[in-house]
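Hi, here's the filled form for the chain we discussed.

Project: internal
Contact: R.S.
Residues: 109
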Amino acid sequence: MSDPVPAVSVTDLPADTPMLDVRELDEWTAGHAPQARHLPMSELAGRLAEVPGDDPLYVVCRSGGRSGRVVAFLANQGYPAVNVSGGMQDWAASGRNVITDDDSAPRIA
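And the returned structure, exactly as it came back:
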């Protein structure tokens, strides 16, 4: 059995904490945290050079499942990655800011 990945709840993150959003483009376009950077999970292995050097590196997806897998992968690559439990669903539910790049009404897809 594998060790659980390091995780933090949305409520324990400062609102302006940089995050790596690993959702797909349509999910990102629908709504994301203002300070997040986008790198889809499906493209991660080929774009490792673009992974931010944040320490810790907070990783978020819609609900925490995909980001947990990404955190496990990145930890094996030596990154100080931490999963954001509950993902963007908990982010939005806790009243945190969600934006779009085209000024449409943000939503978590």
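Let me know if anything looks off before we file it.
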